[in-house]
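Dear support,

I submitted the protein below through the web form. The confirmation email said the job was done, but the results page showed an empty box. After a refresh the structure appeared. I'm attaching both so you can tell me whether what I see now is the final result or a partial one.
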Amino acid sequence: MSTDNGPSLAPRQMPPRPLALWCFATAFAAGFVLVLGLGVAAIMIAIPSARIAPVGAALFVIGMLILASLSILAVFAQFWCEMAPPNQPRRHLRSRAFAWLPALLLPLTLFAAKPVEAVVPGVCTGRFVNPITDVCWSCLFPLTVGPIPIWPSPRPDTDNPILPVCACADPIPRLGIAIGFWEPVRLADVTMKPWCFVNLGGIKLDPGFDIGFKPMAGPSAVGGKQQYNGSWHVHWYMYPLIYWLELVADFLCLEPGDIDILYLTEIDPLWQDSELTLLINPEAVVFANMLATAACAADCVASTTVGPINALFWCAGCQGTMYPLNGNIPAQIGHVQGSRLALNRFMSKLHRQLILWGTSGQSALCSRDLMPIIKKSQYRVQATVPIPGFGPGACLPMGGASIVPGSGNMLPAVGEDMGYLVWRKRNCCLL
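What the results page shows now:
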């Protein structure tokens, strides 16, 4: 009989593993998954703003049921594996992979239940305006001294004073030079979502009351004829960009101030009711006819080429008619045209309420003058959200064709929030 102590040809037996440890680990993983799923579901139910897509919610519920079932089965599979003979490694490996399957499916279920606020109507979108890179600085020009262009520009300009010298008694007696330039003075949010501040990063406030809220309109709403109805709100910001950036020396021709919110249409009853708006624009009934509307075609051509026709004050050029002076637009063609028309009406409304005054021409050299009827030629509008406007079509006058500045701004589902930078012509007697 041989007593050789060499290696045996019998299969090597695996050392026994503690059953309790594996069962405890698997049960702990199953419990952790269930608690995590229930916690996420509770948070989503408790927080109304955490919207979940219907498909994502269904996948989330199904995924959690599958995870619970697989976790329970994994416990029994692990128990069976430990009780099986040790010469069955394949079954052991299958049971280990089976036990890890719930952990692998967990990220998929959480991804399916991810909030999808970007595609839900009513979600505010926007971005902060970079005062350096998002501003078309060529809109400052032309720069004139009297009628002479010192820095010319192909963009339309207003009529400048005849003489290059001027004399003023207000606010201080002085002799000076009559200069003319375009100044960025205001920012505007134009949106169909109440309390949505587009130029402030797309934040949406909850005032705690339902003032300013209307049924959702626009292409992302209900379809049919109502999709061409627009109910726009405007937020008006003070934005004296040249002054607070200190690009030019401080002098009387620049409007001083800081960034501030000046006007909210949500709290203005005249802006939301066309009948109440007649209190400040009773002449709207005179221009509510086909002849007055047809005259706006000439204003459209002029606004796009040489500048708007100020005598046609009831026209907003290619955007439509200026009346009524509110945000109710019954026939809009896309949110670019609708938002520009709403902004034009809002600025005309501020002139009617004597909030905006005249700043261009011979009469505005020494001080601003009252202007209850808007002078359309003294304003330019540049888009800031969603895409800042640059190039020749960036700062069109009021009523200019929006084909060029509107390209790339028609974003599906989330493109109804627009931001604009308003440029104003300034004629001033420089000391």
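Response: this is the final, complete result; the empty box was a page-load delay. The CA atoms of residues 143 and 151 lie 5 Å apart.
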